[in-house]
Amino acid sequence: MSSDLPDTPDVPAEEVTPVRIEDEMEQSYIDYAMSVIVGRALPDARDGMKPVQRRILYAMHEMGITSNTGHRKSSSIVGETMGNYHPHGDSAIYDALARMAQDFSLRYPLVDGQGNFGSVDGDPPAAMRYTEARMAPLAEELLADIEKDTVDFEPNYDDRLTEPAVLPSKVPNLLVNGASGIAVGMSTNIPPHNLGEVVDAAIHLIDDPDCSVRDLIDTPETDGYIKGPDFPTAANIVNREGLWDAYTEGRGRLRVRADMDVEYADTGGDRIIVNELPYQENKARRIERIAEDVQDGKIEGISDIRDESDRDGVRIVIDCKRGANVDVVKNQLLERHLENTFSVISLALVDGQPRVLNLKELLEQFVDHRREVVRRRTQHELDEAQDRVHILEGRLVALDNVDEMVELIRNSADRTEAIEGLRTEFDLSKDQAEHIVRMQLGSLTSMEAEEVIEEYEDVEAEIERLVTILEDESVLLEVIKDELREIKEEYADERRTHVIEDAGSVTREDLIAEEETVVVVTEDDYVKRMTLSDFDPQHRGGKGIIGTRPKEGDRVSTVFTASTHDYLLCFTDQGQVYRLKVFELPEMGRTARGTSAVNIVDLDDGEEITAVVNTDDIDSGYLAMATRGGYVKRTAVSEFENVHSGGIRAVRLEDDDALVDVEVTSGDGDLLVGTRQGMTIRFAEADARPMGRSARGVNGIELEGDDRVAGLVAAESDDDRDLLTVTRNGYGKRTPLSEYRQQSRYGKGLIDIKTDERNGEVCAINAVSEGDGLVIMSEAGQIMRSHVDEVSTVGRNTKGVVVMKLDDDDYVAGVDVVDNSDEEDQVTDAEGAEGEAESDGSESDETAA
């Protein structure tokens, strides 16, 4: 194969140094990484600028594109920057230029843009040939005094020009506008802050160099200056702990939450108005994702969402459906879309090396930089003033010797001879003599002489001031503080971002509407919850409506009511106790079977929930338990503070015994134990001494034959409530608790209700008050909601009245009492209401021996 390439002779290398490839790769990678870190990605801690930003502003300065000039094409600025200072792609330079012009990216924009420079909807800037730009007034403060030898200059990339290594920067730009960048193996993410707060903190640091970070932070516990980041898009910061970490350690995580208002409508359909979005949030994309989640059913209760934003600010309108809980909708939006995390990493270059800095160190870098800038500027101005005084002194000599100098100059052969003659005759320096030779005769008038004398005195005073600044550190710091105050006066504005109290992260509980529910558990451990309002109250004797459809061979074993936000202790027949969050139970329709409880509670085979206690009711006191075999035990509430997911033992059971009921007690009341055959005993709670969780308990009631305990009630000695007794066949009655006299523990008790063929065995006993509601459920799945007032109050040893009408082969599975104090339910007509209480006329006190 022929080649057109010329032959190249092999020339042996003069020197070959063997190098391990691992070492060469390591060193080359380190060199590359440091090039990216120092030359592109990280800001300098002194002026807060990355190289590309600094070069753009300096190029505009050299081009004379200040805030007082007309706008220039962005392409010309990019071209000048790329050609002279930044040898990288034009798109990277234009992106940096555009970002400095975006008022939603920088808290205080450094470029005054004209044209389309992008939007919060993620729209990119127009091409650089269409946009124009000039420096913003604040940017000029970053470049102020750059000609006065205030900073070091270094050669540009091709050694044709020089560029500043850092800008003089009167503004603490790193904190004011923040910075973000990804280098090799490290990144920085510094949030923007309020200019006025940062200036005040810097002045305090100058006054008290030994102050702590705590002295600089403004919190409810401290009296500092910086409240927190101040994002250009406002919004709210909701965790002060993250702020504290960010300012003291240089790293922290902030939760930034959108600002929302609610417009309530009398006819339903409330509106949520989003006025402010978290920093760096893409508004259009966020609205699109909210709509997707609504469509997919991940967010419920929203009927419409639209963007009504304009140039005055963000306005996203979210319409809620009629009946939707607006607080739940807000929490769903916060959890998924309108709250994000801003990770603070205060990494910047210090002496060319990357360092993570706390708040005080960030301010110290700026103050130290300004100290050096002001000192160098003062020295430069002093040198110029001294040069000027030297010239003015020569002019004063000329004014005093006008005739002689004019004669000497006229008689000189040339300018050089005249200069040398002046130096020799009048003891002038070369600069003074050259200046005098160049003077015009018109400057020798008496008026001009007065001006020279006045200028000389002014410059002398200026020299004295400059010398004082250089010699007295406190005066130099006062200059810095005065200039900072001027910056604050000129550019500071009101704070936008608010730091609000930390209400905690949005939890799953926040996403569930708080409402009363009915929880149904079957013998085969199927469980579900339904809204209590789905069941209208009926008159006594109604059949209720379907509440669940158990599978064939399964029957309802337990029913209870609870709020979706309640935390419950669920006690099982095997003596275990589990902690359950009601909102974790599946919400299903009335005809649904439910979900297997093993998916929610770790129940063993055949284990059933027999008693439920709301944790809101057990701040202190005891939990009293009754077993099927007649044992009673009291255990302190503190024993149940830590119930893990696998449950813990609540009571030790023996033989074929089972836990039946649990009540919260005060410790000095009475306990009533009721049996299936209608016997009830009342004894002092103190008769059953407190025991540990592993104890069996003591005998509470003496059972006859095959009788078993049906339930337990806790009462006070002067309790004016009634004892509600409901039998399996749907009959029940109320009897004042005062009719059950106190006895000794382990007696047979008194007859409470007749348990003949009509009534059947006792299913449940409860202490009730006037106005309470009832939820009664049958084993076949019928639920009836009624009022306690519908059940007649009669004496002991009576049959009672029909409470719920049951189909053949159906029985009452459970009864729960509901507080109806805040409800005004309409009672519907009942079907099959039957006669009033029946009594055999005997209310004998059948007590135990």
CATH architecture of the largest domain: 6 Propeller
The overall number of domains is: 4
- CATH domain class of the largest domain: Mainly Beta
Instruction: State the low-pLDDT regions, or none.
Output: 830-849
Strand order of the largest sheet: 37-34-35-40-42
- Number of extended strands: 42
Mean pLDDT: 89
Q: Helical stretch count?
A: 17
Fold-level CATH name of the largest domain: Neuraminidase
**Bulk shape:** elongated
The helix content is 25-40%
Q: Largest sheet, if any?
A: 5 strands, antiparallel
What class, by secondary structure content?
A: alpha+beta
CA-CA gap between termini: 123 Å
- Strand percent estimate: 15-25%
Task: List the topology elements.
Layout: H1 21-41, H2 51-63, E1 72-73, H3 74-84, H4 90-101, E2 111-114, E3 132-135, H5 137-143, E4 153-155, E5 162-164, H6 173-177, E6 179-182, E7 187-190, H7 195-207, H8 213-216, E8 236-237, H9 240-249, E9 251-257, E10 259-263, E11 271-276, H10 283-296, E12 302-307, E13 316-320, H11 326-338, E14 339-345, E15 347-350, E16 353-356, H12 359-400, H13 402-411, H14 415-426, H15 430-438, H16 446-471, H17 473-491, E17 498-499, E18 516-522, E19 526-531, E20 545-546, E21 556-563, E22 567-572, E23 576-581, E24 595-596, E25 609-614, E26 622-627, E27 631-636, E28 648-649, E29 659-665, E30 670-675, E31 679-684, E32 698-699, E33 709-715, E34 722-727, E35 731-736, E36 750-751, E37 762-768, E38 773-778, E39 782-787, E40 798-802, E41 812-818, E42 838-839
Parallel strand pairs: 8-17
Antiparallel strand pairs: 1-3, 2-3, 4-5, 6-7, 8-9, 9-14, 10-11, 11-13, 12-13, 15-16, 18-19, 18-21, 19-24, 20-39, 22-23, 22-25, 23-28, 26-27, 26-29, 27-32, 30-31, 30-33, 31-36, 34-35, 34-37, 35-40, 38-39, 38-41, 40-42
Helix pairs in contact: 2-3, 3-4, 7-12, 7-17, 12-15, 12-16, 12-17, 13-14, 14-15, 16-17
